[in-house]
UniProtKB/TrEMBL annotation:
This is Threonine/homoserine/homoserine lactone efflux protein. The lineage of its organism: Bacteria, Pseudomonadati, Pseudomonadota, Gammaproteobacteria, Oceanospirillales. Keywords: Cell membrane, Membrane, Transmembrane, Transmembrane helix. GO terms for cellular component: plasma membrane. It is a multi-pass membrane protein. It is found in: Cell membrane. GO terms for molecular function: amino acid transmembrane transporter activity.
Length: 201
């Protein structure tokens, strides 16, 4: 049994290195943590995990072949992902300071929005393709192994992405003036928009 699960150790190291580094998800979690707090950002975090779980399992079961057979699907996903990222970048950059939001302005990303974004997130695709190609056991039940590996990957990812949301929450406590908030949100919006370069290059 232990020998059969030996692949989980290297897979954990891989997922830690991929999910703790900057990317569209982590930039948006930082902005959300600062603007809405850690607990209101939780659906966003869970949506990332749920979306990646579904994507990774789908890749293991043949979804990755879609890109090879139909290149137009990859192009379409890139364009959709870029457009959605630019929309989110604008929402982040134009968000008012939290004290103004108490009157009903703005809300964090929902579970389903965050989950759906993973299918247009190039970093999530790269992670999933490399994870399943490199660590999915060749023997045994493919479906069971794919679900186990995908679930384990998201278990490892949870504290990594939570760190970014917590980092944003800590920054939010340091921002005391509306001007500081505007500058922070503009910077986070610009960083989110810059992620489009990763998609279109």
């Amino acid at each position: 049994m232990l020998e059969g699960l030996a692949f989980l150790g290297p897979a954990a190291l891989y997922m830690m290195s991929m999910t703790i580094t900057p990317g569209p998800n982590n930039v948006m979690l930082t902005a959300s943590g600062a603007n809405y707090g850690f607990w209101r950002t939780m659906p966003h975090m869970l949506g990332i995990l749920g979306g990646c779980f579904a994507l990774f399992a789908g890749i293991a079961l043949g979804l990755g072949l879609l890109f090879e057979r139909y290149p137009m699907v990859q192009t379409t996903l890139r364009l959709v992902g870029s457009a959605y990222l630019l929309y989110l970048a604008w929402k982040i950059a134009s968000a008012p300071p939290p004290d103004l939001r108490l009157r009903g302005e703005g809300r964090p990303l929902t579970f389903w929005q965050a989950a759906a974004f993973q299918f247009a997130n190039p970093k999530a695709w790269v992670m999933g393709l490399a994870l399943m190609a490199g660590f999915l056991p060749q023997g045994g039940d493919t479906l069971l192994n794919a679900l186990l590996l995908a679930a384990f990957a998201e278990l490892v990812a949870l504290p990594c992405i939570a760190l970014w949301a917590g980092f944003g929450t800590a920054i939010g406590r340091l921002l005391k003036t509306p001007r500081a908030w505007r500058l922070f949100n503009l910077a986070m919006g610009a960083m989110t928009a810059a992620c489009v370069i990763l998609i279109l290059r």
